[in-house]
Design brief:
single chain; binds protoporphyrin IX containing FE; about 60% helix
Length: about 120
């Protein structure tokens, strides 16, 4: 067992921010996902996602954006969309020096929000 948080093992907010940049580069290059972000201010989105992931991995960061249900309401996001986003997050983490167990732990932490994000089958 270790007493460091997942946030610490990822390298803190700056390292998570680098993963998030890589993640959205992949999302925007994916023609299935890119249309969802057509009207999105991506620098703000990267900042919110960095704070969200820092917070859910146990960092000393206050996420002050919308809850996951409200943030994705009305977008008609499907399980397949969710799976595609999760795969890009997994791949983005894989680009950095993150242990396999920690990569899986990040995916599990966000998986708990799947039901709030997905609206259609
Ligand atoms: C791994 C699962 C996901 C997480 C952790 C996540 C996280 C977030 C966060 C933190 C925000 C910002 C909310 C705010 O600004 O208050 C957000 C907004 C958004 N997300 Fe997600 N999201 C996920 C999955 C998805 C999926 C599957 C899609 C679409 C295919 C999506 C599309 C969007 C869009 C379009 C916005 C709004 C951007 C805007 O305000 O213009 N997200 N998400």
């Amino acid at each position: 067992m270790t007493d460091t948080t997942l946030y610490d093992r990822l390298g803190g907010e700056e390292a998570i921010g680098a993963v998030v940049t890589e993640f959205y580069d992949r999302v925007l290059a994916d023609e299935r996902l890119e249309p969802y972000f057509e009207d999105t201010d991506m620098s703000q989105q990267r900042a919110h996602q960095t704070r969200f992931l820092s917070s859910v991995t146990g960092g000393p960061i206050q996420y002050d954006g919308d809850d996951m249900g409200t943030a994705h309401e009305g977008m008609g996001i499907s399980h397949a969309d969710y799976d595609a986003i999760a795969a890009h997050l997994d791949d983005a983490l894989g680009e950095f020096d993150v242990a396999d167990a920690d990569r899986k732990a990040v995916l599990e932490a966000v998986e708990s929000y799947r039901e709030a994000i997905v609206e259609t089958t």
